[in-house]
Histidine phosphatase family protein
Amino acid sequence: MTKILLVRHGEAAKSPRDADPGLTELGQRQARELAERYARSERFSLVSSPKARAQQTAQPLADRWQAPVSIEEAVIEIPSPPDVPLHRRGDWLRGLLESEWDKKDALQSGWRRNTIDYLAQLQQDTAVFCHFMVLNSVVAHIRGDRRVRQFRPDYTSVTELSLDGGKLEIRRLGAERRSRIV
């Protein structure tokens, strides 16, 4: 059985003009606290989304373990349609959260399939530093639930999965945010 930890990145410095913001000061502290929590635990391979906020969340643990972080496109945040400008992405995401996966276009469906296929082929215990929508798409897939929003993972929350015989299972959902903001 393979263990998979899906780790939501720390708080990002959101901006309607920056497609790849890094972590805020709070986000950096969250990443350090996560590293402290897992510093003495069993070691996992470390994988991160290419986005700066996910890589910056992974780095403190990588530093403690003196381990590399592999960058993986399959766990990047969900792509918005080409006609949605960056300053409208938040509105698009809020609408997406109230919809169902089978109603999405080929871009989002392909992204989701790629993410799930990547996780299903892992052969060693892995911590994956990723995004809100990655977590929700994987949980929806495992549950067989078409709703996009499954839960509201907090920053640096850890959702534990297992993979056995090619089948993903949820062991424990990560902590949820109390705020309604994504």
